[in-house]
Amino acid sequence: MLTWLRDLFGLWLIEKHLAWYLINGRLSTQRAASVTRYIDRLCARLRPHAQDLVDAFGFALEHVRAPIASGAERQRQDEARAYYAELIASGQAPVSEKTLRKQKK
What we know:
The structure is a single chain. The chain folds into 2 domains: 1-53, no CATH class; 59-105, no CATH class. The chain is flat. The protein is built from 7 helices and no strands. The model has no long low-confidence stretch (mean pLDDT 88). It has helices at residues 2-16, 18-23, 29-46, 50-56, 61-64, 72-90, 97-104. The protein is an all-alpha fold.
């Protein structure tokens, strides 16, 4: 199982940066296309063992019920994103220094 997890992590990293591997000729397009399929196969193999893997971390009930696990942080982040989107839409958002630097050139 640990070998599958290792492979899954490695392939996930490759998939995440797939454009770099393709641009730099590290992977052919055919092999790049097979990365996601292999990840799916590994996930299917690991699925029956998912609870055992989670239990191996030894999380107690207080960890599972911690505020960060409740979705409260996600809600806070979503509210912050909405606030900044509203600021940008209203034209009240601060101007980025990068934008100012580009305008001077």
